[in-house]
Amino acid sequence: MTYLEMMIYNKIKKLANKYMNNLHKSIDKRIEEMKSDNKDHYLIYEVLGVSDQEGDLIDLYQNKGRFLYKYAGSFLEEATIICFKSAYPTAKKCRIENTLGSRPKTFEIDCLFDKKAHEIKWRDATTDGDHITKEHTRIQVISKKGYTPIRVMFFYPNREQAKKIQDTLKTLYLGVGGQYYYGDDAWDYVYKQTGINLLKILEKIANERKNNIKTL
């Protein structure tokens, strides 16, 4: 690694440690809270042929999954911004006024630099049509502001309906002169913009954790 790469690696490793610790603390707290949860709804589980034991596991991992997805998305967004800031020190998160409607009042830009407004997603499995409407308005507002809307999504969804939503979003981005990157193209985009191989850094951190992974 070059000096810059090592510096970014150390920053992202520190960030990963913080998110890992916070994730485990949040899950431990929720597990403790669940011990006193009301389980009257298990009646419906039983009606549908699901045992109390399996119901416990389903509720447990549903809660764990919510925390994991939330922390995973926030971590990867912040790690990506670290890379962008290394090449563009003025890069920032900001909000802009919704000039095409009253709700919401503002839209957030995950990372703005050189008039490039980035939406950073670790993955997006939504199948909600309302998501398309809101995103369409958001990128139109960004475009009218004089910025180029750019969507960077690292992991593509598996379900067909979610894929169709992403295809529609890509068409919307390209329709206003924006850019849309996912999968390998997303990792490559970050590398080309910053000279930092984010994927390689994350793989290195993951490999270092393999022998010391704590069960959630």
Give the tags:
5 strands, 216 residues, 5-stranded mixed beta sheet, alpha/beta
Rounded to the nearest angstrom, the distance between the terminal CA atoms is 32 Å
**Spatial shape:** globular
User: Structural class per helix/strand content?
Assistant: alpha/beta
Low-confidence stretches: none
Largest sheet: 5 strands, mixed
Order the strands across the largest sheet as they lie in space.
Answer: 1-2-3-4-5
Order of helices and strands: HHHEEEHEHEHH
Note the total helix count: 7
Radius of gyration: 20 Å
Number of E-state strands:
5
Q: What is the beta-strand fraction? A: 15-25%
Whole-number mean pLDDT: 93
Helix content: 55-70%
Characterise the protein shown here:
It contains 7 helices and 5 strands; from the N terminus they run H-H-H-E-E-E-H-E-H-E-H-H. With 216 residues, the chain is α/β, with parallel strands linked by helices. Strands 1-2-3-4-5 form a 5-stranded mixed beta sheet, sandwiched between helices. The chain is 60% helix and 16% strand. The longest helix is centred in the N-terminal third of the chain and has 36 residues, at 52-87. The mean pLDDT is 93. A hairpin with a 2-residue loop joins strand 2 (106-113) and strand 3.
